[in-house]
């Protein structure tokens, strides 16, 4: 009877051990499956094809423009500041271009008006209160101007380095592209003066990027087709024109 009881207990224990092993095996398999799903890379079919972006950009439009306050102004993140800046530039263009107001004349008139108002206010305040008014001191901080000058210096030096690389004769295609761009820019410059061109550039910077950011999913496919067509035409131009330009002289100079 004792042997029967022991055998029954051993059977029960074996059954419990099997059940626990199944439970632990299921848990470990599920955890390993979840870990494998987390570690397993996505299949090629699930990976979304790389989307063509204008000018090959990989960052958002806001990051392309620096991601700071200038980018916020250009992309109308703060509509009041962007609108105020655009209205101010438009007013300056109307003053100097349409009304033919000169900058020196405008500055002198503003100073005359400011000095006259402050002088009259000082006299009235002295007569009424028997004391001279406290005119606030105007102080322009030095750091912002130094930062702007430093940034402009870096960009100008970078432009000089690019021009030097182009003038070295290493890349004929880049040279022809730059010459064509400068020629087009000279034609555009003959249509209007510098102030009008500057105003056009400011208006374009405040309209084109924000519209592109809003409709980039529609613009990028069209731009992709345009770039494919441009590459085809460039290949034809390269085969018919650029490939026939003799390069022996350049190779001879490089050997020397």
UniProtKB/TrEMBL annotation:
Predominant cellular place of this UniProt entry's protein: endoplasmic reticulum
Annotated Reticulon domain residues: 70-256
InterPro entries the record matches: Reticulon, Reticulon-like
Secretion signal, residue range per the UniProt entry: none
Keywords: Endoplasmic reticulum, Membrane, Transmembrane, Transmembrane helix
Residue ranges of the TM segments: 81-96, 102-121, 175-205
Region entry Disordered, spans: 22-42
GO cellular component terms, semicolon-separated: endoplasmic reticulum membrane
Protein's membrane topology: Multi-pass membrane protein
Subcellular locations according to the entry: Endoplasmic reticulum membrane
Keyword Transmembrane helix: yes
Domain of life: Eukaryota
GO BP annotations listed: response to bacterium
Name of this protein: Reticulon-like protein
Origin species: Trema orientale
Classification of source organism: Eukaryota, Viridiplantae, Streptophyta, Embryophyta, Tracheophyta
